[in-house]
TrEMBL record, chain A:
Residues 6-229 form the ABC transporter domain. Signal peptide: none annotated. Gene3D superfamilies: P-loop containing nucleotide triphosphate hydrolases (3.40.50.300). InterPro entries: AAA+_ATPase, ABC_transporter-like_ATP-bd, ABC_transporter-like_CS, ABC_transporter_ATP-binding, P-loop_NTPase. SMART domains: AAA. SUPFAM superfamilies: P-loop containing nucleoside triphosphate hydrolases. Transmembrane segments: none annotated. One of its GO terms (molecular function) is ATP binding. It is a peripheral membrane protein. This is ABC transporter ATP-binding protein. It holds the Pfam family ABC_tran. Keywords: Antibiotic resistance, ATP-binding, Nucleotide-binding, Transport. It is found in: Cell membrane. The lineage of its organism: Bacteria, Bacillati, Actinomycetota, Actinomycetes, Propionibacteriales.
From TrEMBL, chain B:
It is found in: Membrane. Keywords: Antibiotic resistance, Membrane, Transmembrane, Transmembrane helix. This is ABC transporter permease. Pfam families: ABC2_membrane. The keyword Ribosomal protein does not apply. The chain crosses the membrane at residues 36-54, 66-92, 113-136, 148-173, 185-210, 230-251. Residues 21-223 form the ABC-2 type transporter transmembrane domain. It is a multi-pass membrane protein. Its main location: membrane. InterPro entries: ABC2_TM, ABC_2_transport, Nod_factor_ABC_transporter.
Amino acid sequence: MSTPAVRLSGVTKDFGPVQAVRGIDLELAQGEVVAFLGPNGAGKTTTIDMVLGLSQPTGGTAEVLGMAPRRAVAHGLVSAVMQTGGLIKDLTVRETVEYTASLFAETMPVDEALANAGIASIADRKVGKCSGGEQQRLRFAMALLPDPALLLLDEPTTGMDVEGRRTFWSAIRKDADKGRTVLFATHYLEEADQYADRIVLISRGRIVADGTGAEIRALATGRTVRATWPGADHEALAALPGVDQVDVRGEQVLVHAKDSDEVARFLLTQTAARDLEITSKNLEDAFLSLTGADA
Amino acid sequence: MSTMTDVPARRVPPLGGFNLTLLRIELFRMLRNRRTIIFTLILPAALLLTVGNQKGWQDTAGSGNVAAYILISMALYGAALTAAATGSMVALERAVGWSRQLRLTPLHPVAYIIVKALVALSMGALAILAVNVVGILQGKAEMPLHVWIEAAVVTLFCTLTFAALGVFVGYLVPSENAMQILGPGLALLSFLGGVFIPIDTYAEVVRYVAYWTPMYGVAEVARAPLTHDLPWFAIVNAVGWFAIFVAGAAWRMSKDTARV
C-alpha cells in the first residue's frame, strides 16, 4: 500500500467560539478523484485550507503524501485552484505564469503550460482584461506547472458551460489515470456523481457519508415507509426483501426499502400497523437529509 | 505512478523561491504603471525645476550651494513617494488574494518581503536618479562629487522607512486608493519636515511640531553629507519612525494572516 495522498486524523478547526470542522478522519489513496460535497458553510473550504497548510488544525493532524502540508507545497507536490481572486490585474497572462513558474524548483515550460491551458493566444493580454473563463484557465495553468501529485479544486467549474465542463473533466481524468489525486469541493450533486470515484459528503464540519456515487445514490433510492405499530417486530421487518434500514421510535416504525410495496403489504396484511405513509427520496432529498438540519 | 510522488526527486527551490525573474516582472510592472511614473519620476523633477529656481539658489549651503540642498530634498521626496507606492501594493496583493495564491507555491514569506524591498529600493533609486539627472541638466546645484554620491546613497536607504509606511497604510486603507492618501500625506509631511522649505524659516511652535514628524529626521540625515550638520534628535527621529512603520506594517500583516 503506498502512502495516502491525504490523511486527516481527528481534524478540528475552531474560529473563536465557532466550530467550523468538528472532527474529520479521511484518507485518500493516490490517483483517486474525490468530490468533497456539501452545502455552503459545511467546512469544505476550511478543510481544504488545512490540507494546503494555509491554516493549522485546532486539533488532530493533516498529512499530505506522508508529510506536513507546507513541506509538500514546498516540494511542488500539491497545487490548488481557488474559486475567485488570486490574480494580479496589471500583469499579463504570460507574466503571471512565468512568475509562478520561477518559484518552483522543477516546472513545466511556460509556453507548454500556456498551450495546454488553451491560453497561448492571449498570453500578452493583461489579466484584468481577461474573461472569467480565461482567468480560470490561467489558474489551472498555474496549478499544473509543478506537475502536482495532489490537486485541490474549489468549485472548479463554476461559470463554465456544459461543453467547457466536459472538456475540463476529461482532462482531469486523464491526469488522474497517471496517478494524480484530485480532491474537488462542489455543491453540485450531479457533478460529484458524474466525475468522482468517490464522494465525501460533509455537513456542519463532519463527514456524514463517504462512498462511491452509486453508494451515495443508494441512500437516496427507494422509499421510506412510516407506520404506527405498537410492539413492532424489528426482526421481521429487517428480514423482508429489499429492506436496508429499520428504525423503531416508540410506536413509530420507519422502514427504508428499495421495494416499499412489499413492506406496505406486509404491514397492512400481517400486522396491526396503521397510519401508513410512504415517501420517496430523490438524490436531492438524500443530500438534504444527510446534510440538513436535525441531527 | 511513483514518478508523481517520488519526493526525494522533487527539489525545493533555493533561497526560499527568491529569483531574478520575480524581480524583473515586479519592476516592469511598476514601470508600466502610468500613475507611478507621473507621481514618482516626473513630479519630483518638475518640483525641482520650479523650487530650484527660487532666489538665492547660488548661496552657500554646507559644502555646496542652496540648489544642491534643494536637489537632495526633492530626490528624497520622490524616492519616498515611490517606495510608499511600492509598499502599498503589498496590501493590495493581499486584498485580491494574490498572497494566498503565493502561499500555494514554495515562495517563502521572507523572500517575498525581500523582493518587495528590492523593488522599492530600485524604484527609489530610479526616482533619485531622475531628480539628479534633471538637477545636473539644470546646472545650478553645486557640491563635491562624493557628496552627490553619499547623499544619493543615504537617501536611498531612508526610503525604506516609506516603503514600510506604504505597507502599513495599504493595510489600513485596503484598496487601490492608498496612494491617494499617501500622496498628499507625504507632501504635507514633507512641508512639515523641512523638505520643501527650510525648517528654520518656520515659527518656533511649528518647528517644535516638525521635529516630531517622520520626514524631518530622514531629510536631515539625507542632507548631512552636504550640510555637515546632523542634530542627535534627527537621528532619533529617523530611526524611531523607521521602527514605528516597520512595526506597524508587521502588526497589520500578522493580523491579516488568519485570513490568508
